[in-house]
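Record filed here:
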Amino acid sequence: MVESNKKTMSWDKLLSSKRLGQSAGLPSSADKRSPFDKDIQRIIFSGAFRRLSKKTQVHPLAANDHVHTRLTHSLEVAQVGKSLGKALAFRIKDDLPDGISPDDLGSIVEAACLAHDIGNPPFGHGGEEAMTHWFETNGPRLFRSLGRAYKRDLMFFEGNAQGFRMITQTENHLFQGGLRLTYATLGAFLKYPWSSRIPGKKFGAFLTEESILKEVASELGMICLEEGAPNWARHPLAYLVEAADDICYAILDLEDAVELRIISYDAVRSLLFDVLSPEDQAELENFLVPGYESFRVNLARIRGKIFDQVISGAVDGFMNVYEEIMSGSYRKGLSLFDAIEDGDNRKKVIGTAKKMARESIFGDLKKIENELGSYSVFETLLNAFCSAAIDQAQYLNSPRHEVSIGWKSSLILKMLGEHYPNELNPPPGHEWSEYQCLRRVIDYISGMTDNYAVYVAEQLHGAGFSGRQRP
């Protein structure tokens, strides 16, 4: 139990089932789903979630179908998150409000995990770096008319902030609540519950979503860390979402590397076995299949043991710092695994797996070649679309449209379909400023799949005459 004399967040507010952008309505008597189960289904059935099947997890445009995409990664993270949420609910059951079950906590975390990578651009983290590089290089020239805060907001592309924008603004109900998820799920989603105004590379909301961030934090009773600043302590369940992601990419990225022959099966097996007890090792040995080509089966069996341990470790870590998490004083940048003692094998396996990935996977030559190629793709896309956005903003903001828009820019904007910035569809309460137009074309580019981004870039270079089929 959290001491009552400290300022703490309350589970009564943190688990709000009210929906962003939607007034309360009477549920159908035939609908027995919980509000949080509905969140799961709204995310899964969204177009943005479907596109994750063609987006990079670690290895861009991999031909091997056993390698993870953002979709398979998100589904696996969601299952680990669900287990974490339910396990935590049993540990804090005396603190939870009446009517909230372990399944509810499991569903909130599962929903947030499903959406946690929904804002990532093509080519994964390499794509984020490529977009940021382009903006840092070209932004000072293109964005002269923008204020300092707006320049920073554009020049550091952040997938977490783009994801928050998508689920609250642009997906399904455009500028009217997005997917209209519950506040509890939105809070759990916010890994970085502060806007781009707060110094640092990472943030969870662009300036366009700053008011929504404030609304979510207020509804959930999240603790403000700076008076008058858009900067809040994390929702407690956001730590579980982060832990689920850490668990999956630490372990499963190694499996992908074995699949692609970047790391040997024996090296990964040795790393994972090293953190198991002698009893667990002996038990596993009886279930492993001999022969190198059986590595998929063997890694799956080893993974089960490892996952059992690290899931319990994450929950133990949460309980070790429960008071700090609930009071908003758990230090920024620390995960639940940082709250476990250094000698604990459950902490060791996550750290060791991440270290192996950094040293052996991210320097792989084929991966480097693909990431370098992604820079050229983004350079082509951003040059064309951002120039068109600026042209359109100047056209829309000229008093009698005396500033014309070029033929090429008008064609490029037509690719956005009905969502291209025009007089009939400005964001509520705003005009189509240069910043707002740029934000919309960034929505379009970051929402592309890997293969569609390559296709459009090639089209802009004239490859449309090659007869290549449209993705």
Remarks:
- The CA atoms of residues 164 and 248 lie 21 Å apart.
- The two ends are 54 Å apart (CA to CA).
- The domain at 365-466 is CATH 1.10.3550 (eoxyguanosinetriphosphate triphosphohydrolase fold).
